[in-house]
Every structure is written in structure tokens, then in C-alpha cells.
Amino acid sequence: MVRVVERMLGWCRQVPPLVADAALAAEVAAVTVVAVAVQSQVEDQPMTTLGVVALGFTLVPLVWRR
Question: pLDDT tens-digit profile of 34-59?
Fold first, then answer.
């Protein structure tokens, strides 16, 4: 078990920081879009273009945080 964790940590350290940050931003975006889609179905209000743009602006700092 320890070897598996060490191997995974070694692999994670080899990933460039920008790639890791972009993956984090993509994951946060996916979760947020699903949450907004579910909420819009409940309230019967689709996500507007302004909402998509605002979501994009909130994710940009995650990519360029280092």
C-alpha cells in the first residue's frame, strides 16, 4: 500500500503546475455546471449567457494561481 501511494505522489509531482491547475479548474467547472443544471431544472430557469461568463471568470484564477 505504501508503494502505491509513493508511486502516485511521484507521478503527481511530475505533472506541470499549469496542467494540474487546469485540471482542478475543469473539475470545479464540471461540478458547478451539474449543480446549476439540477437547480435550473428544479426552478425551471435555464442558465443564462451571463451565468456562463461569470462561471468562466471565477475559474480563471484557479488556472493561473501559481
Answer: 888 888 888 777 778 888 788 888 88
What is this structure's pTM?
A: 0.64
Residue 59: closest CA among 17, 16, 29, 20: 29
DSSP for 9-64, written as a single string: HHHHHHS-HHHHHHHHHHHHHHHHHHHHHHHHHHHT-PPPHHHHHHHHHHHHHHHT
Give me the long-range contacts of 28-37 (CB less than 8 A, separation at least 24). Answer: 28/59, 28/62, 29/55, 29/59
Tell me which amino acid residue 12 is. Answer: C
pLDDT in tens, 4-19: 888 877 877 888 888 8
